[in-house]
Amino acid sequence: MQTDPVIDPDTGLWNWLAYDLRFYRQKYGMSQSAISEVIKTSPPNLSNLEAGRRRLKDEQAEALDERFKTGGHFKRLLRYARLGHDPNWFKQYVGIESRASVLKVYEPIAVPGILQTPEYAGALFKAGGARNVEELIEKRMKRQEVLRRPDPPLLWVVVTENVIDWPVGGASVMRKQLARLLEVAEQPNIGMRVIPRSAGAHAGFDGSLYLLSGEDGDIAYIEATGGGRLVPSLTEVRSYEARFERIGQSALPMESSLRMIRDAMEAL
After folding, report:
1. CA spacing 20 to 30 A to 219: which of 49, 58, 139, 156?
2. Which long-range contacts (CB under 8 A, 24 or more apart) does 53-58 make?
3. pLDDT score at 233
């Protein structure tokens, strides 16, 4: 059976945590099955933890510290990994997104990537100075396969009026993008609402917010300097869920929101 390559602990705190899990297991001559019993998980899940595809929970970090006598090393690393900016955050996010059963998305400036057309995405990448635009578009479109699963996730989207009337890529590109939003909004698993400018100040001025629920648990993604931050802490996630609800209170009902999108499309 092919084993996962050892990940580089110098590429981020989460990778360091995954690396040390394997390092200490092998140092003490323990099998994956044996450590799985220690942290109360399955061998396949442990393999994912050691490969950085899953993340340790608090009680699992504590169990490792107790078994390996590491004086709080795993619990400490877990705490700082959650606080810090992980350079591999997006790879982690895409994996979690692909397995999610519920996605809640708030975007104040651009159409969420999971709903972008290739032309709209390309316009954003070009404006950002990307050189490998076609490759980036392909990756973004691949993310959207989650919506074509036999059991697609529930997707609740909230955007601001800026998102629907800012002509990214020009009138033709934007018209096609708005048509895409109206099309997907017809699906029973997708809800879409718009916050009008007339709402004034609202709880979403701090930036984008993504909430994901599924086999990985409940996880939030928020903007951070130079990238983003995944938040697996249940306490923090609950606070972001409350923020998402407050943001939604400023949005129009779905039917009014779709009417606003149609009006924006016709105005182009």
Report:
1. 139
2. 53/95, 54/216, 55/14, 55/92, 55/216, 55/232, 56/17, 56/21, 57/217
3. 67
Contact 181, 254 (CB under 8 A): no
What does pLDDT average to over the chain?
A: 89
Domains of the chain: 9-83 (1.10.260.40), 89-267 (3.30.870)
Nearest to 62 by CA among 29, 84, 30, 39: 39
Q: What digits encode the pLDDT tens for the residues 93-105?
A: 788 888 899 999 9
Instruction: With a cut of 90, say whether residue 154 has pLDDT above it.
Output: yes
Going by DSSP bridges, is the β-strand pair 154-160/100-107 parallel, antiparallel, or unpaired? parallel
The CA distance from 20 to 94, in Å, is 24
> CA–CA distance from 100 to each of 23, 78, 108, 217, 218 (Å)?
30, 22, 22, 9, 9
Q: Quote the tokens at residue 69.
A: 């006598």
Whole-angstrom distance, CA of residue 251 vs CA of residue 198 = 10
Structure tokens at 59: 């009680």
What are the distances in angstroms from CA 102 to CA 97, 155, 157, 182, 219?
9, 6, 11, 20, 11
End-to-end CA distance of the chain: 57
d(CA 48, CA 35): 13
* Residue 95 structure tokens: 């994996």
Residue type, 91: K
Q: How far is CA 242 from the centre of its chain?
A: 17
